[in-house]
Design a protein that fits this description.
This protein has 276 residues and is α/β, with parallel strands linked by helices. Helices cover 39% and strands 15% of the residues. The chain has an 8-stranded parallel sheet. The protein has a two-stranded antiparallel sheet with strand order 1-2. α4 links the parallel β6 and β7. It is globular and about 55 Å long. It starts with 5 loop residues before the first strand and ends in a 20-residue tail after the last helix.
Length: 276
C-alpha cells in the first residue's frame, strides 16, 4: 500500500484512500501545497467552493507533471448554492475555477433542511450526463441519509464527516457499510488537539511513529478515506509514511475506546444554516 492505494466505490470508481485536504489553506499557498503533494505521490485532492481555493487547485493540477486521469479531485456545493437549479450553476462555477473537464467526486457540503433532496437531484443529473464520476454527501447523519434515500435514484457513494479517535462515529460507519457508502474523514487528526493523550503517546512509542501517523493508520485500517491537511512538505511526507506498519487488534481497540463523541465543529443538526 501507498498514497495511491485505492478503495472501490459502489459504482466501481476507485478513490485513493489517503488524500490531501485544503480547507483553510490560503489562496496564496494552495498552488504550491497541492503541487508538493502531487510530487510526493498524493493522488487525491479535496477542495470545495466554500474554501475559495478551487482556482489554485486547478492551476496546480495543470502545472503538475502528473496526468489528470491519475488525480482524483473532490469539490463540494456550499449551503447557499443549494437547490436544483442553483446547484447546477454552482457546479459550472466550480468547474470553471478548476479549469477541468470533469470532477471525480462532487459532494453536498451540509444537509441544508428543505433543500438537500433537490440538490441531490442535480447531482444525480450531473452524474447521469458524465460531468462527474461519482456523487456523495458530507455531514449527513443516519436520519439525513434515510430522508435522502426516500427520493434518491442513486445512493451516495461517500459520506464525508468529522471523524477521528474522539469522534468515532461507529453507528454511522456501520449504517454506511450496510448501504455500501464509504465514510471519509474530515478533521481526521482531531485538529491535533489531543496528540498528548496517553493512548497515542504509548502507541507512538511502541511503533516509533508520530501521533498523527498512528491516527491515520487507525483510520485506514477501519476502511475510512482520510484527507489530512498540511501545507508543509515535511508533514505531508510524514502523513504518507503510514504503510510500513500495522496496528494490532488490541491497538485498534485502544484507539476505538478513545471515543468521547467530541466534535471540533457543529453537529449537523445544530449547524447555523441560516447564516451560511
Amino acid at each position: 500500500m501507498n498514497a495511491a492505494s485505492t478503495l472501490t466505490l459502489s459504482n466501481g470508481v476507485k478513490i485513493p484512500q489517503l488524500g490531501l485536504g485544503v480547507y483553510k489553506v490560503e489562496e496564496a499557498d494552495t498552488k504550491e501545497t497541492v503541487m508538493t503533494a502531487l510530487e510526493l505521490g498524493y493522488r487525491h485532492i479535496d477542495t470545495a467552493s466554500f474554501y475559495e481555493n478551487e482556482k489554485e487547485v486547478g492551476e496546480a493540477i495543470r502545472e503538475s507533471e502528473v496526468p489528470r486521469e491519475e488525480i482524483f479531485i473532490t469539490t463540494k456545493v456550499w449551503n447557499d448554492e443549494q437547490g436544483y437549479a442553483e446547484t447546477l450553476i454552482a457546479f459550472e462555477r466550480s468547474l470553471e475555477k478548476l479549469q477541468l473537464d470533469y470532477i471525480d467526486l462532487y459532494l453536498i457540503h451540509w444537509p441544508v433542511p428543505g433543500k438537500f433532496q433537490d440538490t441531490w437531484r442535480a447531482l444525480e443529473d450531473l452524474y447521469k450526463h458524465g460531468r462527474v464520476r461519482a456523487i456523495g454527501v458530507c455531514n449527513f447523519q443516519e436520519h439525513h441519509l434515510d430522508q435522502l434515500l426516500e427520493t434518491a435514484e442513486i445512493t451516495p457513494v461517500v459520506d464525508q464527516v468529522e471523524f477521528h479517535p474522539r469522534l468515532y462515529q461507529k453507528e454511522l460507519v456501520d449504517y454506511c457499510a450496510k448501504k455500501d457508502i464509504k465514510v471519509e474523514a474530515w478533521a481526521p487528526l482531531g485538529r491535533a488537539r489531543y496528540f498528548d493523550s496517553p493512548v497515542l503517546q504509548s502507541l507512538s512509542e511502541k511503533h516509533k511513529k508520530t501521533p498523527a501517523q498512528i491516527i491515520i493508520r487507525w483510520e485506514l485500517q477501519h476502511g475510512i478515506i482520510t484527507i489530512p491537511k498540511s501545507t508543509k512538505r515535511k508533514r505531508q511526507k510524514e502523513n504518507m509514511e503510514v504503510f510500513d506498519f500495522e496496528l494490532s487488534p488490541e491497538d485498534m481497540n485502544e484507539m476505538d475506546e478513545m471515543n468521547r463523541n467530541e466534535r471540533q465543529s457543529k453537529h449537523p443538526d445544530d449547524f447555523p444554516y441560516d447564516e451560511s
